[in-house]
């Protein structure tokens, strides 16, 4: 199982960022008879990122700002990253992630630690099976793009996830997978205590793999989300918690076409059942797609798309449906100079909790991002990365529209091999 920790996850997507690495689909690689043993790896990097953000408060240009005369900001974040794998016989321990602190020139109330780390054990109790035990911790200041109210914006959100994932592969190409995870999201601001949630998810899959035909699997998942601090005080719903139950099932297909093109496609049906009356239910398709091309020389291209139901840490939201599309191109100009560009489009639809009838509830929004990244010196221990991002959001409530341009430079020094 590959574990990947993204550099930063914004509030409504932080749970998905934490969940994604733990429940990867059954693949042709995982369906082989003997799992590949881990190689010892210790990579530790120290560095700092400087960034200019033209709209760090994430507000439209026509809306009054409660955060002072500046909408832009200069941000400095020193941080350390680690990528460590320590094999012990057939087993292995791993740690991947980053920790830092963000300093703001104008909006120092947003100064906050940032932590995004995954740690765990990879066990091989019997030869066809691999078990992964992992803990994921995400801690950061809530992005103001996701503060859909005029309440106190200072909030440190902490999302902790524990997960178990068991996979077995037989000689005939049959594969099975069973997983469980539990997530707890908390907030430091008392006014946002009602947004804290707990979720549990169980997943399972069984598939068959053939080298010439690819891997086909049937999957199913059941999850529950509850907001323990959202309880009606009186009326017929007294004592009941806000939240939802999510059930999904479908098919997943993966195939490697030649040595350069890899594709993965999944499609199914999901059903969202809210815990409280008055919240609309949802029934519809869930799907994901990923297509990548690697020239094995200089050029890498990727297309991706997904649609899923998500809990989130937003005020007054019972659940949301998120649809996203991504495309990226990466080109190695020289062995030490790499250029990557891409764009993404995300559409979110939110269902409001009957316990919080906010007059300016943002029921839906669309966000478009275009970015470019130039990495210099990635072969040696020193690397310098230049980033440019343009992001624009259109929301149902106009005050939540914003545009932002971010320019940054990151310098790191890597230890280890």
Describe the structure concisely for a colleague.
By secondary structure, this protein is mainly beta.
Could you outline the blueprint of secondary structure elements for this entry?
Elements: H1 14-19, E1 41-53, E2 73-88, E3 91-104, E4 112-123, E5 129-141, E6 156-169, E7 174-187, E8 197-210, E9 214-227, E10 242-257, E11 261-274, E12 282-294, E13 299-310, E14 317-334, E15 337-352, E16 364-376, E17 382-395, E18 402-415
Antiparallel strand pairs: 1-2, 1-18, 2-3, 3-4, 4-5, 5-6, 6-7, 7-8, 8-9, 9-10, 10-11, 11-12, 12-13, 13-14, 14-15, 15-16, 16-17, 17-18
Question: Could you characterize the architecture of this molecule?
Answer:
With 417 residues, the chain is mainly β. It has a single domain (11-415), classed as Beta Barrel (Porin). Helix content is 1%, strand content 61%. It has one helix and 18 strands. It has one helix at 14-19; strands spanning 41-53, 73-88, 91-104, 112-123, 129-141, 156-169, 174-187, 197-210, 214-227, 242-257, 261-274, 282-294, 299-310, 317-334, 337-352, 364-376, 382-395, 402-415. The chain has an 18-stranded antiparallel barrel.
């Amino acid at each position: 199982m590959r574990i990947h920790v993204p550099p930063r996850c914004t509030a409504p997507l932080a749970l998905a960022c934490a969940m994604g690495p733990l429940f990867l689909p059954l693949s042709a690689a995982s369906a082989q008879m003997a799992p590949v043993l881990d190689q010892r790896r210790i990579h530790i990097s120290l560095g700092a990122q400087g960034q200019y953000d033209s709209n760090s408060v994430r507000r439209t240009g026509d809306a009054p700002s409660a955060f002072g005369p500046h909408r832009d900001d200069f941000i400095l974040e020193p941080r350390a990253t680690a990528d460590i794998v320590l094999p012990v016989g057939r087993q292995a321990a791993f740690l991947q992630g980053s920790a830092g602190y963000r300093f703001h020139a104008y909006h120092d109330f947003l100064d906050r630690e940032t932590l995004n780390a995954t740690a765990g054990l990879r066990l091989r109790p019997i030869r066809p099976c691999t078990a992964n035990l992992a803990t994921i911790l995400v801690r950061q200041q809530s992005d103001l793009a996701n503060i859909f109210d005029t309440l106190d914006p200072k909030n440190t959100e902490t999302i902790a996830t524990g997960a178990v994932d068991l996979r077995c592969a037989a000689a005939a190409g049959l594969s099975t997978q069973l997983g469980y995870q539990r997530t707890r999201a908390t907030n430091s601001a008392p006014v946002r205590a009602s947004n804290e949630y707990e979720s549990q998810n169980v997943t399972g899959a069984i598939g068959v793999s053939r080298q010439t035909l690819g891997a086909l699997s049937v999957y199913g998942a059941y999850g529950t989300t509850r907001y323990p601090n959202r309880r009606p005080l009186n009326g017929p719903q007294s004592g009941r918690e806000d939240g939802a139950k999510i059930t999904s099932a479908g098919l997943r297909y993966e195939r490697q076409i030649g040595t350069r093109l890899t594709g993965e496609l999944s499609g199914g049906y999901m059903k969202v059942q809210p815990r409280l009356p008055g919240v609309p239910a949802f029934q519809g398709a869930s799907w994901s797609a990923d297509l990548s091309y690697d020239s094995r020389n200089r050029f890498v291209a990727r297309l991706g798309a997904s649609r899923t139901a998500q809990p989130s840490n937003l005020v007054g939201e019972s659940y949301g449906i998120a649809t996203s599309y991504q495309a990226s191109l990466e080109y190695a100009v020289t062995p030490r100079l790499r250029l990557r560009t891409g764009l993404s489009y995300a559409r979110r639809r939110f269902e409001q909790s009957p316990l919080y009838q906010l007059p300016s509830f943002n029921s839906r929004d669309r966000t478009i991002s275009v970015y470019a990244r130039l990495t210099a010196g990635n072969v040696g221990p020193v690397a310098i990365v230049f980033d440019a991002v343009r992001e624009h959001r259109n929301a149902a409530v106009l005050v939540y529209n914003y545009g932002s341009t971010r320019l940054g430079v990151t310098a790191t020094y890597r230890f280890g091999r």
